[in-house]
Amino acid sequence: MLLQSRAVFALGLRMCSTHVTKGPLIETARPNSDMSEFRKDFSKAKHIVIITGAGVSAESGVPTFRGENEKWRKWQSQDLATPEAFSRTPSRVWEFYHYRRELALNKKPSAAHQAIAECEARLRKQGRSVVVITQCTDDLHRQAGSKHVLKIHGSLMETRCVSCGNVTLNKRSPICAALKDKGSPDPDVADAQIPVDKLPRCDESDCHGLLRPNVVFFGETLDSHVLTKVEKEMEICDLCLVVGTSSIVYPAAMFGPRVASRGVPVAEFNTQTTPKSQYFTYHFQGPCGTTLPPALARHESEVIY
Q: How many helices and strands, by DSSP H and E, does the chain display?
């Protein structure tokens, strides 16, 4: 099973699953919720990896793919976030992502985003590192000031041409004239059925190909260059935080357990336990914006620069 989980990581296929991996991974006793014990591990850590999921951005008002936001109009959100859906109905998928882009563009970093960025900046002056590995496709970690961010599922604020492959930072609002005021999630709103030539198009000379959001759709392979960097960070980290993620989307669901299998302390911050909580050293329950700031605040042993 461990070899199988490593194969999934190497392949980097984004897939949703509630499967709980058993076997060679080390299961701890009931996760510890003693913040003072976590703070001791935090004070000693030199290379900290923070894995963040949709729960962090949800506290900023960015909807997740689940719960009350599981549907957009009458479709399941996860069924729209696929290459097949984009190929069949690019107008509908672009409406869906335009809605998500516009929401994200108008949100501000949460207390959890701010705590992570402040911790990274502070520890950098001490010769220590903080790396964010995020499943979120918004830009809120960057807005908060985080410098070392690995976005494994891509970015809503980038587009990729399906013809020439050119990737471009794109924060235009609306992204194209035809999508202005489109994308309402109301189930009574009809599809705009925008002609393909009116959807976002490539600005490269002699191309003008159709653009798509530069995000990893379900069923697509994650960027191998990003995964290589993730692999390296997981091998060298001496403390890992898993923040605001349900731990059911692979391969990200295996990142925390893989670090734990090396005997490295892993702390989970979430509103509830997850299928992977049993593998972690710590579990702190509650909103990330409440539990994370005191966890990452300056430790009394830190030298102030």
A: 11, 13
In tens, the pLDDT along 220-246 reads: 999 999 999 999 999 999 999 999 998
Tell me if 95 is assigned to a ligand binding site: no
Q: Token pair for residue 172?
A: 């235009």
Q: How many structural domains are present in the chain? A: 2
Query: Any idea which residues carry the catalytic annotation?
Result: 153
**272 in a labelled binding site:** yes
Tens digits of per-residue pLDDT, 244-273? 998 888 888 899 999 999 999 999 999 999
169-182: average pLDDT:
96
Whether 22 maps to a domain, the answer reads no
Measured CA to CA in angstroms, residue 169 lies from 195, 241, 288 at distances of 24, 29, 29
pTM value?
0.90
Provide CB contacts within 8 A for 87, sequence distance 6+.
none
Residue 119 annotated as binding site: no
Give the sheet arrangement for strand 154-161, strand by strand.
167-169, 154-161, 211-215
129 is in an annotated binding site: no
CA dihedral 70, 108, 251, 223 (to 10 degrees): 110
Tokens of 196: 């393909």
**Can you tell me which residue has the tokens 């190497």?**
10
Residue 256 is assigned to a structural domain of this protein: yes
Which one of 165, 198, 215 terminates a domain? 215
pLDDT digits (tens, 9 = 90+) for 141-169: 999 999 999 999 999 999 999 999 999 99
DSSP 32: B
Kindly state whether residues 90 and 189 are assigned to the same domain.
Answer: yes
Is 71 a known ligand-binding residue?
yes
Please give the helix or strand (H or E) that residue 224 lies within, else none: helix 224-236
**Six-digit token pair at 112?**
């959890």
Confidence band, pLDDT 50/70/90 cuts, at residue 3: very low
Domain of 43: which CATH number? 3.40.50.1220
Backbone angles phi, psi at 174, to 5 degrees: -75, 160
Q: Is 123 helix (H, G, I), strand (E, B) or coil?
A: helix
Find the domain containing 158 and state its range: 65-106+154-215
